[in-house]
């Protein structure tokens, strides 16, 4: 029976799906195991970089929540198509959906990381969300995320191309799709045996707690009512201001129309005046010519004149 030597992507897919602390020892063990059968592959496996925390979280998300990641990438495709077709209303709706979706999926990614033994800081969470956003606005980033072979987080505005060489484990990652896997079952924890002891003051405590809750909710209602009143006042003020500004704008438009009409009238009068001036200049030239001719004739007839 012969054993087929795995390729680099197969090994990488296995390694980048592991818990973060398991990556380095498992990678080294696999490289050592492969050394006898394929030294070149063993060298490349040994060179695989340990992912950053944010990259590991995204890789985990791709494997455990593939449907959510597919939804993220589908919204990204629709968003890029809307941008290309300049569909303004659709683009605004998709942008809102993108923000809501990335926030929700990032929250799920944090929960998955916690379930797999890693506490995620706010900075790492921001990098995870930035990576998901990059996958939505940039097609190459989407391919990198889908591979599940990230070693570093991504960032993209969707305008300039992203250099992905340092962000993925191997160049072959682009075009590869990570193998999904099931979440690890939660380990049951032993529960101490409980003995219920009746509380003689249970009813009194329950009533006191209910009254306290009622008081807090009444306070919350009062605060919410006050906030609503203030917001309604702001809305009314802004509506009034909007009407005032619209009135001023209408007046400016009316005045502009009058000025434009005046400009046309002035242009017409100017054209007429220029025509009259041209005629006067021609008359002056003719009169001057006649004058010069008369003076010359007189000089010939009366040299002493």
Q: Order of SSEs, N→C?
A: HHHHHHHHH
| Beta content | under 5%
Give the CA-based shape.
elongated
Radius of gyration based on Cα positions: 41 Å
Residue share in helix? 55-70%
Cα end-to-end separation: 140 Å
Low-confidence parts? 186-197
Secondary structure class reads mainly alpha
Global mean pLDDT:
83
Major beta sheet summary? none
Task: Summarize it.
The protein has 305 residues and is mainly α. It has 9 helices and no strands.
Give structural attributes.
single chain; 305 residues; mainly alpha; 0% strand
Write the layout of secondary structure elements.
Elements: H1 8-15, H2 23-34, H3 39-46, H4 53-64, H5 66-85, H6 88-115, H7 122-137, H8 139-147, H9 202-301
What do these coordinates show?
The chain is mainly alpha-helical and 305 residues long. It has a domain at 8-173. It contains nine helices and no strands. It has helices at 8-15, 23-34, 39-46, 53-64, 66-85, 88-115, 122-137, 139-147, 202-301. Helix 4 (53-64) crosses helix 5. It is elongated and about 135 Å long. The termini are far apart. The relative contact order is 0.08. The model is unreliable at 186-197 (pLDDT under 50).
């Amino acid at each position: 029976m012969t054993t087929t030597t795995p390729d680099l992507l197969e090994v990488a897919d296995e390694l980048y799906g592991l818990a973060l602390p398991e990556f380095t020892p498992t990678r080294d063990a696999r490289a050592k195991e492969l050394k006898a059968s394929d030294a070149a592959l063993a060298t490349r496996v040994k060179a695989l970089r340990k992912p950053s925390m944010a990259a590991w979280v995204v890789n985990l998300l791709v494997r455990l929540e593939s449907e959510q990641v597919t939804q993220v990438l589908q919204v990204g495709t629709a968003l890029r198509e809307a941008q290309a077709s300049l569909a303004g209303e659709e683009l605004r709706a998709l942008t809102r959906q993108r923000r809501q979706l990335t926030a929700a999926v990032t929250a799920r990614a944090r929960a998955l990381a916690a379930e797999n033994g890693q506490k995620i800081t706010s900075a790492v969470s921001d990098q995870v969300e930035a990576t998901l956003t990059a996958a939505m606005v940039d097609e190459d980033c989407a391919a990198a995320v889908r591979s599940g072979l990230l070693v570093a987080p991504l960032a993209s505005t969707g305008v300039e191309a992203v250099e992905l060489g340092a962000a993925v484990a191997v160049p072959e990652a682009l075009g590869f799709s990570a193998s999904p896997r099931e979440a690890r079952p939660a380990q049951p924890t032993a529960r101490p045996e409980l003995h219920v002891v009746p509380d003689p003051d249970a009813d009194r405590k329950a009533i006191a707690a209910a009254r306290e809750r009622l008081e807090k909710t009444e306070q919350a209602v009062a605060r919410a009512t006050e906030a609503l009143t203030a917001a309604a006042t702001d809305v009314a003020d802004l509506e009034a201001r909007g009407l005032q500004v619209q009135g001023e704008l209408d007046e400016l438009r009316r005045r502009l129309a009058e000025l434009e009409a005046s400009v046309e009238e002035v242009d017409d009068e100017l054209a007429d005046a220029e025509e009259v001036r041209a005629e006067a200049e021609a008359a002056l030239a003719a009169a001057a010519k006649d004058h010069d001719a008369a003076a010359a004739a007189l000089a010939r007839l009366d040299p002493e004149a």
